User: Fold Class I SAM-dependent methyltransferase from Methylobacterium trifolii.
Amino acid sequence: MTPRPSRTLERLRRRVLSPLFDRLGYDLVPAAPDWSHRPTSAREVEALLSAAADSLGRDLAASGISGPGDVREDVRRFWDLIPKTPVRQRRGGSGFNGALQLYVAMRALQPRCVIESGVFRGLTTWVIRQACPDAAIFCHDPDLSGLHYRDPAARYATTDWSAADWSGLDPGATVAFFDDHVAQGRRVLEARALGLTRLLFDDDAAGHRIHAHGGPAHPTIAMIRAFRDDPEPIRWLRNGRAFEQPADDPRVREAGACIARAHAFDDLHRATGYSPARLTYVALHAPVPPEVAA
Assistant:
């Protein structure tokens, strides 16, 4: 569990520093991950885990993912694992809900190889390793200097994943996870070119909610899907800047044609009380064999 701050520092934060930062327009919060706050009585723990398992079970079914394990058991196992993570993060990256969704999805998908684009401090790499202890993990991030966890068996690179040599990759045994703030339409096309069919995306913001996000790359999966029914451009303001995602962007049409199924997981906030997560599973159409295409 995360160590408690000293009483002296906590009094200083509450009585002096927090009021000062509040006058300056900032919030000062303890640098503790959200999973360090949790119910401890058996009844409340069971209620949280049951609600989370029910929600995740529905999401896996809607995604077309049928794993061999038991979702309730996976949720309970994660509950015991997450306090042991070596990664501490309060702002940015995944919280409890996002890490739980990734863990359960990876347990169900059972990939032998995982490509992770966007590593940040290493929490999601740690989660993937707990879910898939024998998988080969390839981690790509332009800046690896902030890692709190470096997987001893994973391969790390600061180049974009699309520039790597994947000649020995088995696409059918691979899952790609994108949390890199790069246009999701572009990532779909890159994955399709490699023959990948199972993708996970973080920060898949819908058009009517994208204004509240700190910089999701667009077109997002939700936008690509929405344009099938309505070609009106999506426009929004963020920090005084105007943004627009047109429906006639070539990436929208091409990526949309590649997607066989997409499902955005429930954010789990109602089930657990933790900060909402934004995980989306995307299944691409299987590549057409050359002899069939001819």
Summary: The first strand starts at residue 113 and ends at 117.
